[in-house]
């Protein structure tokens, strides 16, 4: 079991907001289409469209014999494993996470129990086969900035340990994404495991780097029940 964070003095309630590149930028990259959904034909070079979210999206160039618009780069791929204690090079890894809807409490709240981070790599989640306008499928991104100091705590066996730059629960944020969006967590960003809302499973292609050393690939901390995200169930999802 991961070490536990100290219990907050009072319940922390987080109201989520829609995922946008600007709002998510302190924690990583929100990947969303730079084009309006109504655009279905290629444009001439004299009228290349501006991205919807500058400066968080690059300007396009023509590709594929001028039948496509290429936006690059849209998200960083960072491998800091050469700076890890093992000095390993780190290897790229593409995985599939099939994420099932999470259980909410009677008020439609999600209780945050675990936070994790990947201290030497970015991690990108891309949903598959999900329409952006499907109101029944949303996923919740819960993130927290790090504190600058170490935090003394105990493991479940009672041993004293130090958590280096633990999550700042008081500044935790939550974002709601739809099926037409992907996300990259920045290096070392504390985040909850993926939270799917609604009634359907969402499959994600996940890209990151790993070394195979457990303490380098992922850090986890346990959060007590006093941290909740008010998902608002149907009301929140209908606003996106």
UniProtKB/TrEMBL annotation:
<dbReference type="Pfam" id="PF04115">
    <property type="entry name" value="Ureidogly_lyase"/>
</dbReference>
<keyword id="KW-0659">Purine metabolism</keyword>
<dbReference type="InterPro" id="IPR011051">
    <property type="entry name" value="RmlC_Cupin_sf"/>
</dbReference>
<dbReference type="GO" id="GO:0006144">
    <property type="term" value="P:purine nucleobase metabolic process"/>
</dbReference>
<protein>
    <recommendedName>
        <fullName>Ureidoglycolate hydrolase</fullName>
    </recommendedName>
</protein>
<comment type="subunit">
    <text>Homodimer.</text>
</comment>
<dbReference type="GO" id="GO:0050385">
    <property type="term" value="F:ureidoglycolate lyase activity"/>
</dbReference>
<dbReference type="InterPro" id="IPR007247">
    <property type="entry name" value="Ureidogly_lyase"/>
</dbReference>
<dbReference type="InterPro" id="IPR047233">
    <property type="entry name" value="UAH_cupin"/>
</dbReference>
<dbReference type="GO" id="GO:0000256">
    <property type="term" value="P:allantoin catabolic process"/>
</dbReference>
<keyword id="KW-0456">Lyase</keyword>
<dbReference type="GO" id="GO:0004848">
    <property type="term" value="F:ureidoglycolate hydrolase activity"/>
</dbReference>
<dbReference type="InterPro" id="IPR024060">
    <property type="entry name" value="Ureidoglycolate_lyase_dom_sf"/>
</dbReference>
